[in-house]
Amino acid sequence: MNSLIVDAVGPECKGMYRIGAAAALILLAYSVSTIVVLAWLGGPPNTAQECFDLLRKNPLTTVLRLDLLTILVMPIFYFLYAGLFGALRRSSFPVTALSTALAFVGVTLILSTPSVLSLIHLSNQYAAATTEARRTLLLAAGEAVMSADMWHSTGAMIGGLLLQLAGVLISVAMLKTGVFSKLTGYLGIVTHGLDLAHIVIGVFVPAAGVILMVLAGPLYLVWFPLVGRRLYQLGRPEAR
What we know:
Elements (H helix, E strand, L loop, with lengths): L2 H6 L5 H27 L7 H10 L1 H7 L2 H6 L2 H13 L4 H19 L4 H13 L3 H16 L6 H22 L6 H23 L1 H30 L5
Helix pairs in contact: 2-6, 2-12, 3-4, 3-8, 6-7, 7-10, 8-9, 10-11, 11-12
């Protein structure tokens, strides 16, 4: 093992590497689950009325379509980037520090947007409403929440851009060191680059954005295992 890798892998960070490896595996499972949900159940409902009706008839299926998994899993990115920062900080500190900061801010912005929990609350109120005026008001509130959720609001869009930019930068940092393989670095640039383009282009050409998202999705199924495997190797007690 060359001196660059030895310098980059300090024993004080082994716990951080193991946590990062576990985070990568959780994110891999999340990616597979998201692909299955989209293919089997479909995407989010188009209107508040449709959303409330579906929540009443089949709440479990509906909350999955409303990205409950995303809300639960997004904080895992904090731990993944903490592990990556520990692995790359000595050999490429400026880029690694910037990408980690961008990822933390991006995830926080995404989590701050309205989500399925708001829609569940409004749906329960809608079901209990006794007047048409009250139902109309709740439907309007539901439409407002859906238009400001993690896929439509400015905050969530900026958060997504920052998170994907962080992925591109951390992959560039991988290429500058011997800690991760060149394959992991290049694949990360392509994967997060496609997702970054999907967010930007999708605003103006939604159909093209969907195509880019479909291309990026399966690549995560390769990138997360590569990252998780390497972080696990770095976190083993016998790793030098």
